[in-house]
Amino acid sequence: xxxxxxxxxxxxxxxxxxxxxxxxxxxxxxxxxxxxxxxxxxxxxxxxxxxxxxxxxxxxxxxxxxxxxxxxxxxxxxxxxxxxxxxxxxxxxxxxxxxxxxxxxxxxxxxxxxxxxxxxxxxxxxxxxxxxxxxxxxxxxxxxxxxxxxxxxxxxxxxxxxxxxxxxxxxxxxxxxxxxxxxxxxxxxxxxxxxxxxxxxxxxxxxxxxxxxxxxxxxxxxxxxxxxxxxxxxxxxxxxxxxxxxxxxxxxxxxxxxxxxxxxxxxxxxxxxxxxxxxxxxxxxxxxxxxxxxxxxxxxxxxxxxxxxxxxxxxxxxxxxxxxxxxxxxxxxxxxxxxxxxxxxxxxxxxxxxxxxxxxxxxxxxxxxxxxxxxxxxxxxxxxxxxxxxxxxxxxxxxxxxxxxxxxxxxxxxxxxxxxxxxxxxxxxxxxxxxxxxxxxxxxxxxxxxxxxxxxxxxxxxxxxxxxxxxxxxxxxxxxxxxxxxxxxxxxxxxxxxxxxxxxxxxxxxxxxxxxxxxxxxxxxxxxxxxxxxxxxxxxxxxxxxxxxxxxxxxxxxxxxxxxxxxxxxxxxxxxxxxxxxxxxxxxxxxxxxxxxxxxxxxxxxxxxxxxxxxxxxxxxxxxxxxxxxxxxxxxxxxxxxxxxxxxxxxxxxxxxxxxxxxxxxxxxxxxxxxxxxxxxxxxxxxxxxxxxxxxxxxxxxxxxxxxxxxxxxxxxxxxxxxxxxxxxxxxxxxxxxxxxxxxxxxxxxxxxxxxxxxx
Length: 760
What we know:
The protein is α+β, with helices and mostly antiparallel strands. It folds into 3 domains: about 1-160 and about 235-270 and about 590-745, Multidrug efflux transporter AcrB transmembrane domain (Multidrug efflux transporter AcrB transmembrane fold, Up-down Bundle); about 280-415 and about 530-575, 2-Layer Sandwich (Alpha-Beta Plaits), CATH 3.30.70.1430; about 420-520, Multidrug efflux transporter AcrB TolC docking domain, DN and DC subdomains (2-Layer Sandwich), CATH 3.30.2090. It has 25 helices and 15 strands. Strands 5, 6, 13, 14 and 15 form a 5-stranded antiparallel β-sheet that branches. A hairpin with a 2-residue loop joins β13 and β14 (about 525-535). The radius of gyration is 36 Å and the shape is elongated. The N and C termini lie far apart (about 85 Å).
């Protein structure tokens, strides 16, 4: 599914480029960046020892729009210089030089975002290390290609489409002149040139357009660009209004940030989003002390019930195996049919099974989610109840379990303390054992392999598979305390009659009697503990349910010396919030340092960076409309936006500075830069959006885990682009005015200082 999303995103991005540039040559020149950057990313993956896995493919899928951004901006600026009448070589050189600082700034800002992501701590850092490194290397390669291959091809590969577009643009200028007033020829009674009549005829009937193409795709792209140009011509008027009402714009931007922060708490926090991966596990337990055959029979009963469901494809039963497996526990792997072959979602099926499995007597079932690199192998909520005294610890754990079962959203809360199980206690008489030449270690080493088994050798079957040969005492010879008491133990004493070690019955040195004991003993931080695990029902956020569970446990009032600690996904979520916040702050600091060094100013980067929060309203609305939550994926998406949002502001501010250096007044420079840079801003934004669109649509099984990141980025890009087009110029003028005021005050202070008098 990730590979399909990667290919589909690349195709959609190329189509967007052609739609805006309306030239297959320009599309090829720009699109070459994609395969070169992706192939280079594979080289980086090989160099760092990465594999082609979910995270590296996710990195490339999300980076499709990023990789082509630099090439779009460079090629668009070169085309603009060609349309100004320059030859291809001069246009490629001057166009690349003019946009170079802005392109470098945007790329380094993106790198500054992904480097902290790659080196986050905790589990999230391990998961996203390959993600961050892959994107960083690919983006740097795309920058190199944009400054080398693209200008080179643009200088030697003539593009007739660009010439045609330049002629059409010249005719549009003539139309505007005609609209403003008649040309001098008509004023003097002389007929207008033929091209004026052709253009007027084209306005009445497009079929008379001399530059009209026969290709329907080309005609559609031409119509799209004409409509875009008409809309873009209105943008300077809207920006001029914004510059006259700066306070209103600033208040509106602040209101959008406030609304976003008001929406975020309603979304809920969770570790990973709910995923319909088409598979899950049913864990079950029988009563303590149950025999293996009994547990296996109950497992087969559950399997028969699961196979009766029309949505189930196949199952796999295992009993007593795995980590900490016991004979009264088992696990059933359930594989569902593909989503297009069943009517119910994974969440609906699990909800029905939670109710239906309760009707099977003698078992306690629990359902876990789809296993992935983020977890899913165990219940998301695990509470460890710790304390010094075992009996009181059991009481405290029972109180915590009862409190958690009352929390809304909790599913199948179970405790690892299931009660005592029957056992045989062997009490060794140390004096008798010493006299018989036996020690505690020798007795234990004799009993342990007889009951738990010991591998004697390995056997290879005719098919070449090897099997362990385990030696264990027969069940028929250890059914009672008397059977165990008759087990012979080899003594260290030598029988003088035979010269061989003596054989001593266990009953001679120990007392064997029936008793009870714990099924398992858990320790953590040198203390005994009881683990309580629970799932989360659909439509409930893990963070919210965990917060309510913590409040319910606090109301229990555990005795002194007894405490609780949340682990599992709850612990991962709490750690992730801290690591994401650190990465976010580092990204913002790195972006500021990069912009300050490239612009040569400590103040101008603020006009760009103050627009970063404008993406928050888009993220919150996108998650709200798609019923998403704040999870590890959306958090990484928000960090990504910090680098992406700066692109628009950099393009505007950089060109505005260039225009002011040429002698234009500030407002005129802003309006001119905004109109010229509007096309690359919209092109790159739409290219990124369409590149991530397949991810956001969650097309394949398990894609729900990746979709929230793309949805958050798309929502943030939409709102930040629309707001940045007006907010960044306004903030730019406000900061420029503030700097001018401070400079005037400084000049007045310096001029007010008394001049030194001779002799002082």
